[in-house]
Amino acid sequence: MKQINKFKEYKFHIHCPSNSLKNGGMETLHQLGRHLKKNNFSVSLNFYPNINYDQIPTKLLKYNLTYEKFNDEVNTFHIIPEIDTIRTKLIKKGKCIIYWLSVDGYFRKNLDKPFWKNWNYYRKSMKKRVFFDKLKKFHHLANSHYAKLFLEKKKMKSQILKGYISNYYSSKIDFQKKKDIILYNPIKDKLHYKEVKKIIPEYEFRPLSNLSQTDLKDNYLESKIFMDLGTHPGRERMPREAVSMGCVLILANRGSVENIYDVPIKDLYKINLDNKDCYFKIANLIKNICKNYDNHIENFIDYKKKISFRNEYKLFNKSVKTYFNSICDL
Question: Which domains occur in the chain, in start order?
Answer without folding.
Answer: 2-164+309-328 (3.40.50.2000), 169-306 (3.40.50.2000)
